[in-house]
Design a protein that fits this description.
single chain, mainly alpha, Growth Hormone, Chain: A, 15 helices, about 80% helix, transmembrane helix, membrane
């Protein structure tokens, strides 16, 4: 039976195809990033430093410092020129070169750690362009902001869900293997990006947003809500990427592969529920998912630390993933609800700036508190910050008009 004209099936639309490809780009970027997390102490040891929280903090922090500094710049350049695809390809290629350079330098041995941090910073400066602008291109698509951000969310969740356990297994083959795989993954992302039609609004010729996300916040203070929530969500993610990984390995005697599997227990439900819960936020508004999800998320972070056995800690990680999936697509969709059409690149860049500041804070706060007062205190701090930000901003948040119906798409 032919599936040609007259059968009632015409295949996916151009928008559907581009949504899928852009989600794949986001997936590959996050997959490459998270490959490194489960054995981060093994990696810094292979690169010439003693395996410790401090060395891991510097290595992970260098990338996210670049994310903070360059996310807004990529968005600004995209909005000014009215182009996105070319910048995504350039960002993915530059990120691939950074990962592969780190692997080559580490293989050579006896390279100053500060030089490796410089390369890591450059890799992050390019990678954030691919990630942030792929997400911005999803914002440009028709079909509902919750649906489009749900696609971004499921790509993020799937990339991290597969990256954590696979990264742990790759570390068993060699400490530098995840770097080689990450570089190859970003080369694939660059190839995928060339297949997407560029729907960016025409360059408007105005200097919008280069004078920083703070200028954008002064003009549109409502963006402060998703930026603050994104900051705290990423803080807990950064906390688990470093402190959580070391905690599971030290407390329960896990190797890198085992730690990756435990992290995967969070990311699997986080990935699978992103899309449907993004659609739900289109129907019920953003308030309920963000408020309920954030408070529950903070409570479960604490529960992970209080779990006396690995089985209970693993179960708490699954619940944590469900709570994260409730919050993430609604928060990203809120950025889209608020931002003007021709300033989406800067708005999403600002969201990533605050999110990556959150990652940095998660590394630093978690490392400092764990070193000074122990892991339980560190988990308590992370959980209190996650739930506390929503409770403190709740009265003003409830007055935000765009949340009333969830229909502004």
């Amino acid at each position: 039976m032919s599936l040609g004209v007259g059968t009632g099936w015409s295949g996916p639309s151009a928008v559907q195809r581009d949504r899928a490809v852009l989600a794949l780009v986001v997936f590959v970027v996050l997959f490459a990033q998270v490959l490194l997390y489960p054995g981060i102490t093994d990696l810094v040891a292979a690169l010439g430093r003693a395996p410790s929280l401090d060395a891991g903090t510097w290595f992970l922090g260098a990338e996210f410092a670049a994310f903070v500094l360059f996310a807004g710049l990529w968005g600004y350049l995209s909005d000014r020129t009215g182009r996105r695809t070319a910048f995504i390809v350039a960002g993915a290629l530059g990120g691939a070169l950074g990962y592969l350079s780190l692997a080559a330098l580490g293989r050579g041995g006896d390279v100053p750690f500060v030089l490796l941090l410089v390369v890591r910073f450059a890799q992050g400066a390019f990678t954030i362009g691919a990630l942030s602008l792929a997400m911005t291109m999803l914002m440009d698509l028709e079909g509902g902001h919750g649906k489009n951000m749900g696609a971004a969310g499921i790509a993020i969740g799937s990339g991290t869900a597969l990256g954590a356990p696979l990264g742990g297994q790759l570390y068993e083959q060699g400490a530098l293997v995840p770097l080689w795989v990450a570089g190859a993954g970003l080369l694939v992302a660059a190839l995928l990006a060339t297949r997407v039609a560029d729907r960016a609004p025409s360059g408007n010729g105005r200097a919008v947003g280069l004078r920083d996300v703070l200028a954008r916040l002064r003009a549109t203070p409502e963006l402060g809500f998703p930026y603050a929530f994104g900051f705290m969500d990423r803080l807990t993610a950064g906390f688990f990427a470093l402190v959580g990984t070391v905690y599971f390995r030290e407390t329960f005697g896990l190797d890198a592969g085992g730690a990756g599997l435990v992290l995967g227990l969070f990311f699997a439900p986080f990935a699978l529920l992103q899309y449907p819960l993004g659609v739900v936020s289109d129907r019920v508004g953003r308030t309920l998912p963000i408020v309920v999800g954030s408070v529950c998320y903070g409570a479960v972070v604490v529960a992970v630390a209080l779990a006396p056995t690995l089985a209970l800690a693993a179960a708490a990680m699954v619940v944590l993933g469900v709570c994260g999936a409730l919050v993430s697509p609604a928060t990203m969709a809120l950025v889209t609800d608020i931002a003007a059409d021709d300033e989406r690149g800067v708005a999403m860049g600002g969201f990533n700036v605050f999110g990556n500041l959150g990652f940095l804070a998660g590394f630093v706060v978690g490392s400092v508190v764990a070193g000074a007062a122990g892991y339980t205190a560190a988990f308590l701090t992370a959980g209190a910050l996650e739930a506390g930000i929503v409770l403190l901003t709740l009265p003003a948040f409830l007055r935000l008009d765009v949340l009333g119906s969830g229909q502004r798409t």
